[in-house]
Amino acid sequence: MTARLDPLAAPSLMKEWHRASLAIASSLDPALAELIEIRASQINGCANCINMHTTYARERGETEQRIYLLSAWREAPCYTDRERAALGWTEALTRISEGHTHEAAYEALEAHFTEEERVKLTLMVNIINGWNRIAVGFGGFVDPAAVKAANAKAANKAAAA
Hints:
By secondary structure, the chain is mainly α. The protein has helices spanning 11-26, 30-44, 47-59, 64-68, 81-94, 102-112, 115-138, 144-160. It is built from eight helices and no strands. The radius of gyration is 16 Å and the shape is globular. Residues 19-92 form the Carboxymuconolactone decarboxylase-like domain. This is Carboxymuconolactone decarboxylase family protein.
């Protein structure tokens, strides 16, 4: 796929978006964050983010089985109740335009996550949905290693500041 536009054409805004993304993602358990990012990206059909987050999930020790079964998480026995609650919430928010069926998802979320964690999860879902729209909208596809290097550089810069 050929990119239609480089989102870095608005560098200061993209730096802030990137910074917020890193802060939100780092506020959650990394394995759970990757599951959320992969599942939302599957729903949104974002090949870039599916590629990136499955790569990162593997690097963090996620199994091939759990990655492959993620699109059928409801029927797969390999996810915890806590993960299921997060995945249900991810789907409810990602598909919110399909109807307001998020009440049951919220009840499950409430049973497994604190108020602060629910806010963090909701922000994570919003961030990945935003990245999906940037990548799909502009036709972006990047190498996960390049993104990882850019993230490390940004984190080092932030730590030095």
